Amino acid sequence: xxxxxxxxxxxxxxxxxxxxxxxxxxxxxxxxxxxxxxxxxxxxxxxxxxxxxxxxxxxxxxxxxxxxxxxxxxxxxxxxxxxxxxxxxxxxxxxxxxxxxxxxxxxxxxxxxxxxxxxxxxxxxxxxxxxxxxxxxxxxxxxxxxxxxxxxxxxxxxxxxxxxxxxxxxxxxxxxxxxxxxxxxxxxxxxxxxxxxxxxxxxxxxxxxxxxxxxxxxxxxxxxxxxxxxxxxxxxxxxxxxxxxxxxxxxxxxxxxxxxxxxxxxxxxxxxxxxxxxxxxxxxxxxxxxxxxxxxxxxxxxxxxxxxxxxxxxxxxxxxxxxxxxxxxxxxxxxxxxxxxxxxxxxxxxxxxxxxxxxxxxxxxxxxxxxxxxxxxxxxxxxxxxxxxxxxxxxxxxxxxxxxxxxxxxxxxxxxxxxxxxxxxxxxxxxxxxxxxxxxxxxxxxxxxxxxxxxxxxxxxxxxxxxxxxxxxxxxxxxxxxxxxxxxxxxxxxxxxxxx
Length: 500
Known about the structure:
Blueprint: E1 5-6, H1 23-39, H2 41-49, H3 54-75, E2 83-84, H4 86-104, H5 106-110, H6 117-128, H7 144-172, H8 195-219, H9 224-235, H10 253-265, H11 269-276, H12 281-285, H13 287-311, H14 315-330, H15 345-357, H16 370-388, E3 397-398, E4 401-402, H17 405-431, H18 436-447, H19 456-459, H20 469-483, H21 487-492, H22 495-498
Parallel strand pairs: 1-2
Antiparallel strand pairs: 3-4
Helix pairs in contact: 1-3, 1-4, 2-3, 2-7, 4-6, 4-7, 6-7, 6-20, 7-8, 7-9, 8-9, 8-10, 8-11, 10-14, 13-14, 13-15, 16-17, 17-18, 17-20, 18-20
């Protein structure tokens, strides 16, 4: 963590008629880019030890990245110690998720993949946003360093997403996340005294989960590279795999282990922080976690029963494959085993619905999130009771607390915008020459950071390599929007955001 201070809304009001000071934003982003350059040395060493030419490529990329980040950091060093305003928090969040992939794409541009910029940036954005979609084929034949780098992008993105979800989004008041600034979720106050304390605790938990996952994968027979990359992608709910058939080589115990760690990675990280601080009650009584597990279980049981009854497939293998793939979709991870698309229309509808819902807020998972869906269900129930008894006062409640009007409006706007954008993106991708089925699931998987692809245009390779450039650009934008909580992107496009 940098020493840059992060303030709450009360302390971060902007002075009227003043431009936004970009130096604090540049300083933090510069540090992150410099750190990214240092981390590129890890795959450089791996490829160097293996005798791969990509080792030198990673050294070159590391030099460019560290040098650029270092120069930006030095140029903005006079901004340290300043508190970030809410507007600066918006810009910082957007700058992180757009600039870091720009440098993260360098190994794909200059390395053995020799990707075009549009494909390299797509791959890096997919990694950092923990989407897991790819335009690369022949993953099994790529040097170990490039596959390790893909896993590292997932892992770094998941860590950054969890931190931003806990620290920035409640302050930015986006998508109803301001609700988590009270009671046990007040990450800037009651749970931990400072943001750095949260970051350190989160980092320790994140590393511990990743190590436990990697050791488990090694125990079930994965190679060292596969275990490490799959572990980083599982905990980050990212979905990048060093194998073209993802978890297809590790069916059986691998599917059960993968489902477990994908679930662990999609729970609210603030609950883990509370757990290691000695309080187990919050994680056990969290209604969001209970609803997430309940809805996932219902989906798995329904699809398993459907497949067994309609195809006569054996129960245990069917249940195992269904558990793994539906967990991967709802947690927005993107791993797969077998050809999920042949499971039938009922399975596809269930998968689409739980993909839209997503997993828990304050985790690295994406989608609408269980919290927002719970609040929307509660709002619908309250409205129905109000229609039946117009004279009653029927508040919308979540975990026994009333949801204030500002939070309710924010959630309604977010949900409506999310659903509307899926439709708009689907139509736009279709107009670029993509068939309707592939376009719909491309919008769904990109905006929800899910990673799965369906449709005729995906079937040949299991990737998005056959999509036209325009569709790749739209999917890249959608991945960033899905990770940036949608409205954050629209807010910075307003002229009054810059000068007021």
